[in-house]
Amino acid sequence: MSGERYLFDAKSHKAIMYQAGDHLYPIAGNKAEHWVSGDYIFCLNTQKISFWILGNDVYGHLGSGELTREPIYYFGS
């Protein structure tokens, strides 16, 4: 992926993270917290799936294949 894209909170519509390459960084930081691989976002600390991406919408991964009912984030520019 080239360039950057931003991850917005679905309720407040505020940018919370940005993606550069395969990594997600907090808006106010420069240390990656997650990485993106295909349709999944993994936590760097736990190495487990944190979120699932469907189009531009991002759903929380609750474990055992369960997802949040509504998207909690979305990708925008």
In short:
The chain is mainly beta. It has strands at 4-9, 15-20, 23-26, 34-37, 40-43, 49-54, 57-63, 66-67, 73-76.
Q: How is this structure best described in words?
A:
The chain is mostly beta strands and about 80 residues long. An eight-stranded antiparallel barrel has the order 1-2-3-4-5-6-7-9.
Order of helices and strands: EEEEEEEEE
Number of domains: 1
Computed over alpha carbons, the radius of gyration is 12 Å
Strand content: over 45%
Shape: globular
* Helix/strand/pairing category: mainly beta
According to DSSP, the number of beta strands is: 9
Give the number of helices. Answer: 0
Average pLDDT, all residues: 92
Largest sheet descriptor: 8 strands, antiparallel, barrel
The span between the termini is: 14 Å
Q: Biggest sheet: strands side by side, in what order?
A: 1-2-3-4-5-6-7-9
Low-pLDDT parts are none
Helix content: under 10%
SSE diagram, text form:
Elements (H helix, E strand, L loop, with lengths): L3 E6 L5 E6 L2 E4 L7 E4 L2 E4 L5 E6 L2 E7 L2 E2 L5 E4 L1
Antiparallel strand pairs: 1-2, 1-9, 2-3, 3-4, 4-5, 5-6, 6-7, 7-8, 7-9
Provide keyphrases for this structure.
77 residues; single chain; mainly beta; 0% helix; 9 strands; globular; eight-stranded antiparallel barrel; 56% strand
